[in-house]
Amino acid sequence: MGASETLPMTATGEINAAIIPDLRRKRMERRSFLDTLFTLGLWGIAAIGAIPLFSVLYMLITKGGARLSLDLFTQLPPAGFMQGGGFGNAIVGTIVMVGVACVIAVPLGICGGVLTGAMAPKSKTAKVVRFIGKVMSGFPSILAGVFTYAWLVVGLKTYSALAGGVALSILMLPIVLLTAEQAVAMVPKRMKDAAYGMGCTHTQVILKVVLPASLPSILTGIMLGIARAAGESAPLLFTALFSNYWMRGLMEPTASLSILIYNFSGMPFPNQIELAWAASLVLVLIVFTFNILSRILGRPKY
Amino acid sequence: MKNNMTKTTPLDAMEQTTGVPTEENQIAIDANIEAIYYGKFRAVRQSHVPIRKGEITGFIGPSGCGKSTVLRSLNRMNDLIPTFKMKGHVHFMGQDIYDPAIDPVVVRRHIGMVFQQPNPFAMSIYDNVAFGLKINRFKGDVNQRVEEALREAALWDEVKDKLHSSGLALSGGQQQRLCIARAIAPNPTVLLMDEPCSALDPIATRKVEKLMHELKKHYTVAIVTHNMQQAQRVADTTAFFSVDISDGERCGYLVEMGKTEELFEDPKQELTRKYIRGEFS
Fold first, then answer.
1. Where are the beta strands (DSSP E) in A108-152?
2. Cβ–Cβ of A199/B106 closer than 8 Å?
3. How far, in Å, are A62, B79, B255 from residue B85 at the CA level?
4. By residue range, what is the domain housing residue B238?
5. Domain assignment of residue A184, yes or no
6. What is the pLDDT at residue A298?
């Protein structure tokens, strides 16, 4: 088995070019067999890894899909024994709070990423920023809530969408920052050299060459951040709280899909439990939609 | 070193403001390098490299001889390397570009650069060429200038119907000519080319070389090349650099500089003769 079958060798072990080698595929030969085994193994492991993902999606669609209707988006959450209802206010609340988080985390994250990835990757500031970013990415989400509670909710004396957004931005910032850093650092040096060679200032190189080239990857990072923020409930528990009514401003307790899921899934009423499933499905669909949109918008043009 | 050169040029080109065509004001860039350091490492020692106006000056020499370093110090591209340190003066249009009052960004707008690897931006062909015009707030007709630059770079006929498709979709040779068009669009005085053909096939190389002969009508060109035949084909003046490893460290320097035919047929230095004969590389 092995090499002796594939190389044209004489009985003494010398390679002899005069012998016509057998080039046919031999499936049971050791190398070939191991190769097939290994490939199949990898496919199998990938399939096992995908099972949880698809089973969650399947469960969401079967359990939440039945309640999917326009009412979910236009009606308010029902009380105790009531039938029907929806969670329009929670959808709005989640979108607004994730929006607030984006307004804070996206500019800060991109600026931080540009600093650590392109402007001064080796500077002390960059090292500190990178370190903080990595520490923050492992920050327990409940602590983001507690921190914002202590500063904003206590300070402003009210639970609010603003406080919820700030708490979510704490979780979003490191994701945006670290992916932006990677994206910016990946821009080939020769492209930057070309821009410097044309007489671009540092700012022009960053704005006209580095950022456009890294935009798709930065958008991916923002989407990851949004997906994380939209799904979080812990930071919102002490900051945005919940509300059964439509939101009228940023400075009042606000409903969110994640808290609604948390509240309703624990209730003894079948209607609320169904709504919790539907809300889960809607949450996934919202994140999915944003993801696809960002990919279309951020597709490299050239 | 200076006595090895076929012509002498005054150290100080500051006085070249008179309109009389003297020997001094035939010089576009007068580089008087005392030493170039990367950190503690001395990469180039004393070398006087005058680049003559309206000519192509070729830099040849073995690897590590500092020819690219010298070229890149002519438009302060080396300033992007944090450890780079230059001792000496480079005079351009009567000003020392290493004077602390000089803005390297502005220097690079007048002394353009073409790199070893074709490096178009991830933009359309048109936007690539218009890039330099935009950053310079060009007031004239951008479309016209883009066309002119592409014609000067001998690329217009090949791309005129697809100006708005990606610059990255062109072949390597076309990309390099696009980079040349991009570099000349803002109308620089001098064009520096750092081994512009080393990533190209022979046919694309010939096209770029032919183009260089056209370019020198409008621009002063300095080109680093690994290829001695290329220097003979394109350069009016050739500078031969070598590495000195005698005192334990590798240090590049200018051995000899002169008219290309003279340098190749009758080099003044034994080292040049050996290099041209191919006895070392």
1. none
2. yes
3. 68, 8, 22
4. 2-120+189-277
5. yes
6. 78
